Amino acid sequence: MKETILNHEDLLDMLDSLLREPEGFWDSFYSDRSKGVPFFVNKPDESLAGYFNGGMLKPGKVLEMGSGPGRNAIYFAENGCEVDAIDLSEESLRWAKERADERGVRVNFIHSNLFRFQFEENTYDIVYDSGCFHHIAPHRRMNYIEMVQKALKPGGYFALTCFVEGGKWGGSDITDWEVYRQRSLNGGLGFTEEKLKTIFSDFEVIDIRRMKNADEDAPVFGVSGLWAGLFKKK
Prior knowledge:
- The structure is a single chain.
- The protein has one domain: Vaccinia Virus protein VP39 (Rossmann fold, 3-Layer(aba) Sandwich), CATH 3.40.50.150.
- Helices cover 32% and strands 21% of the residues.
- It is built from 8 helices and 7 strands.
- The protein has a 7-stranded mixed β-sheet.
- Strand 2, helix 5 and strand 3 form a beta-alpha-beta unit.
- The protein is globular and about 50 Å long.
């Protein structure tokens, strides 16, 4: 009975098993902190800092989806936000907690599968995603959008960074159908501006642009191979 599909959730779980990197993969990925992964730096996204500095985002209750080593969650906390930060990897959360302690800020780090996370609807002023969305398989995309919609308060903001199609750091240009022919996301899906606007058509588009490159000595993280987007719940 274990592999019998009896309902829609069983079908999604089966498709997950074909495509999703398991928890052990991400624990291994984050276990070597010295490798040259660009976003391992302890700096916030330049777009996030820009939204705050420009007054587009203000302190409030934040949900970060796929928080990794915690760099953006810590930035939110340092700017007066109450932060719930979810990640699938215990190893990344361990690193994030160490960083938060070093900076003297409180973040509620949560070890959870994104689609198993329980929350009260209309709770968050901001939902933030830096690098999680392009690892979401197409069959889970509707669940993802529904989660963001439910999590946000009316008029709340959703911001993300994700791979540009064919970008330097990743961004597969295959179609959603081809994902299942190949049984692979090819390291992460890439997007065009038009596709992002189509996928998030239920939101008001505030900003979609290429992330700005940031120098190594800059106080923010930025590479042009990522999109930066800011949307508002209608």
